[in-house]
Amino acid sequence: MTMAMETEGNTPEYSVSEIAGALKRTVEQAFGQVRVRGELSGFKKVASGHCYGALKDADAVVDLVMFRGAASGLSFRPEDGLEVVVTGKLTTYPGRSKYQIIVERMAPAGVGALLAQIEARRLKLAGEGLFAAERKRALPFIPEVIGIVTSPTGAVIRDILHRLGDRFPRRVLVWPVAVQGEAAAGQIAAAIAGFNALGAGGAVGGAVPRPDLLIVARGGGSVEDLMAFNEEIVVRAAAASAIPLISAVGHETDTTLIDYASDWRAPTPTAAAERAVPVRAELMATVGMLAGRLGQASVRGLSQRRERAAAVAARLPVAKRLVEMPAQRLDELSGRLPRALAGVAGRAGQRLAEAGRGIVRAMPARLAVARAALGGQAAGLRPWLLRSKQEAAAARLASAGRLLGSLGPAQVLGRGYALVLGADGHLVTTSAQAGAQPRLTIRLSDGDTRVVPDVAQARLL
What we know:
This protein is of the alpha/beta class. The chain has helices at residues 16-31, 68-71, 111-127, 155-167, 184-197, 232-240, 257-261, 269-276, 280-315, 319-407, 409-414, 431-435, 455-460; strands at 5-6, 12-13, 33-45, 51-56, 61-66, 83-93, 98-108, 145-150, 171-176, 213-218, 245-249, 264-265, 419-421, 440-444, 447-451.
């Protein structure tokens, strides 16, 4: 340690930076690489990708920093309260006068810690109803398009495609994702949502059709390797999928939280392919067998109906016998009809003749009565008609007189107007006509006045 200067009493004086640097070197040289076990507290990931938090036990707390490169290799999602073992370098942070661990690797403190974390998450999501049986949808019998969310490399995708090709070839869409590591959960959830976002008619231009069935798959691994499929974001995406979804994660004994949210859980990726489609050859054989049975049943049913129709026809009477008795009855009635018509006509003629004779006998008397009644009515009707016509004519004449009185020339002259007449006695209505007359007669209400017009003055006016 470099001494800045000697002070009183031979006690050296240091700067703050010198003290901080000396402490940093001392801590790093004394501990170097360390493994520390503790419970995570205040763990968070910032926008730069670095992670910050603390490790604690019952008596102490130490800060930790995990830079982006190391954080990208995490196989699980660190959460507060999870017990972990971290490996890294113990150092100090002079800017805050504190010591911390720069973490290079982080792992759960045993499988039990991870399982406890998964179980707590399962109970939480189950309480929200994400695993309820009524949410499960039936899988399509023969899907036209199958969407697969898995790693594009490895045995899983090859096994699924091979099994589908053997059983019933279908169109397959693969959405490549990471199935392990910190980024895996986000990619898997985005792939499920992406398949659901495709329209029923496909993407733009219809180039990418919407799958009828989804398979989310990966091979086996440890609890840490399968943690991406236990993440809440993946479970929620599977539960929200509108497309029926098969989960095929790990081996038969492996169970992840996506298995609870999926519509059907396959023990292996190969089993998922087998559940997705039937065996085409077996299906064709079954259809052929059913078609044969349908043909046999049709022939047998037709034969039975023919037999029943023949039995019913045998019990029916002969058609000729059905009309024999009605024909005999018709002949009998036809013979009686002329005699009945003659009798009816004779009786009607007698009644008509008697009625005619009665009318002839009563006609003179009825004519006299009618003539007398008509004469009496006519005598009273004629004066009334004459009076009515006279009164109507008098009313019309009075109305015309009143109209003539209000519109006649005398009434107009009485209101201060005058009529100008020419030498020929015709009415003059313009100044040009007045100038052409040798004399004018002005008719007023009390008489006429004759004047000789001034032609020049009339034209000027």
